[in-house]
Amino acid sequence: MDGRQWGKGLTSHGIYASASIGALHVENCAISNFGGGIEPHGTPAVFIQETTIRECGQGVSMIWSGGKALIEHSRLENNSTGLYLLGGTQVTVRDTVASGNTYYGFEVDWGDLNIETCAVANNAGGIYSTTVPSPSGPSTVVVSNSVVTNNQNYGFR
């Protein structure tokens, strides 16, 4: 996907990809007003760059085992959750803003998340990671050179 405006107030996803593709590249897009912004279900490699996802259920929802993703220079704004991980995914988010989300900027129920040079502000909660270990062990969240501020309930949980 490149340089297009997506969204029509539907309850489906802006972009939903299945395991039948080798990689998903989303660049220079705006995705608005969907039940879910991007769900690369089962896609082994995901690259999201310079993309705004706003006013969706979950901005980016990574729910599968073994997937790897890189999100750079993007905005996750006014969604329920900016980025949601489940199923052992490994995601790096770099130079990205998660703001105005009604639940969390970033939520990890099982997976590995690296947050580098990001702003996580004005959400209900900033960064959340479950304390219940998955069948394959606990989640890992690493935050470096980032600002987590002005979140309503907490910055880190």
Describe this structure in words.
The chain is mainly beta. The protein is globular. It has a single domain (5-156), classed as 3 Solenoid (Pectate Lyase C-like). The chain has strands spanning 5-6, 13-17, 24-27, 30-32, 36-40, 45-49, 52-54, 58-63, 68-72, 75-77, 81-86, 89-94, 97-99, 104-108, 111-116, 119-121, 125-129, 140-144, 147-149, 154-156. The strands form three sheets. A seven-stranded parallel β-sheet has the order 1-4-7-10-13-16-19, with no helix packed on it.
CATH-defined fold name = Pectate Lyase C-like
Distance between the termini: 34 Å
The total of beta strands comes to 20
- Number of domains in the coordinates? 1
* Shape type: globular
Q: Which oligomeric state applies?
A: single chain
* Low-confidence residue ranges: 1-10
Note the beta-strand portion. over 45%
Number of separate helices: 0
The top-level CATH class is: Mainly Beta
Secondary-structure element order, N to C: EEEEEEEEEEEEEEEEEEEE
User: Strand order of the main beta sheet, please?
Assistant: 1-4-7-10-13-16-19
> CATH superfamily, called what?
Single-stranded right-handed beta-helix, Pectin lyase-like
Largest pleated sheet:
7 strands, parallel
User: What is the CATH-assigned architecture?
Assistant: 3 Solenoid
**Rg over alpha carbons:** 14 Å
Based on helices, strands and strand pairing, what is the structural class? mainly beta
Mean pLDDT: 89
Relative helix content? under 10%
Summarize the structure.
The protein is mainly beta.
